[in-house]
Design goal:
3 domains, three-stranded antiparallel beta sheet, 40% helix, 11 helices, D-Maltodextrin-Binding Protein, domain 2, alpha/beta, 301 residues, five-stranded mixed beta sheet, elongated, Arc Repressor Mutant, subunit A
């Protein structure tokens, strides 16, 4: 019996509502509904009346079994976690990660689990997926969300896009720009092995109709390298709006792009990773994103 289905069943039983159960579990309502239907098919009986939502006699009987099974599973996870408590959790951070949520999550995790050492690993633009797949980190704050079956993502921020341009350019005096104003700019190059999804994000590929961007002669794989090249007047870069709160670089200006689609930063982990520390870190990050995201302007108003 799938424990995820039991967890969805118990949440609906206790909340009396599919939507509230989904919020409690950080799942979509469709996922919770599918779990209940699969469980009903497996057991061959209805567990809930739907209007209003209430337990059937079979559902009432399953509740106590579900609590016992989930409690036993939690105890097993805690027992195994105790054995490997000293194992270091390696957290990758690309640039400024998910802005204020990055240090908030790390601090909260260290307070909650002081027995688990946390190692922070700086990632460059080429390590969007590879650092996780090659097991160099266990979780990573990156952008945009990787589209890779080997990776699971939790969206933490949704922000406006900006371009980073030399202060000497005429564009630097604009309070804001549109995509039509920036598609022909020369953008700082990234290495050929940079994941296509990241380069599409960096160069606003969705607005180009398949055309390649102009490239400057300078290369960059970190925000500092991009800023140095921009300050020298050699090209432009792009980022999320929170970038300008973290990188104040003389000779550069960050300009909002009004009509560019807003983009996510995410916490990425390996799909199917059973490390309890990873599971706890991911859960904590998503909870803080819900609670603190609007406060830090990391979600649409």
């Amino acid at each position: 019996m799938d424990l995820r289905r039991l967890a969805s069943f118990l949440a609906v039983a206790e909340e009396g509502h599919f939507g509230r159960a989904a919020e409690r579990l950080y799942r979509s309502p469709a996922s919770v509904t599918a779990h209940i239907k699969q469980l009903e098919r497996e057991l061959g009986t209805r567990l809930f009346d739907r209007a209003p939502v209430r337990l059937t006699p079979a559902g009432e009987r399953l509740v106590r079994h579900a609590r016992s099974l989930l409690a036993a599973a939690d105890a097993a996870i805690a027992d195994v976690a105790d054995v490997g408590a000293a194992t270091t959790l390696r957290v990758g951070i690309m640039g400024h990660g998910s802005a204020e949520l990055t240090p908030a999550t790390v601090r909260a995790f260290q307070r909650a689990h002081p027995e688990i050492p946390v190692e922070l690993v700086a990632l460059d633009f080429t390590e969007h997926v590879s650092a996780l797949v090659q097991h160099r980190v266990d979780a990573a704050f990156v952008r945009p969300a990787p589209d890779d079956d080997r990776i699971t993502v939790e969206v933490l921020t949704t922000e406006r896009r900006i371009v980073v341009v030399p202060a000497s350019w005429e564009l630097a005096d604009a309070p804001a720009v549109r995509l039509a104003d920036i598609l022909e700019l020369p953008y700082i190059r990234v290495p050929e092995h940079t994941p296509r999804q990241f380069t599409d994000y960096l160069y606003f590929a969705g607005a180009r109709g398949g055309l390649s961007p102009r490239r400057s002669r300078d290369h960059g794989v970190t925000p500092h390298e991009v800023l140095a090249a921009a300050a020298a007047g050699h090209g432009a870069g792009s980022a999320l709006e929170s970038f300008q709160r973290y990188y104040s670089w003389p000779g550069t200006v960050c300009v909002p792009v009004l009509d560019a689609p807003w983009e996510h930063s995410v916490l990425a982990t390996r799909a199917g990773d059973r490390n309890p520390a990873v599971r706890m870190f991911r859960s904590l990050a998503t909870r803080l994103a819900r609670e603190l995201g609007p406060q830090f302007r990391l979600a649409p108003a």
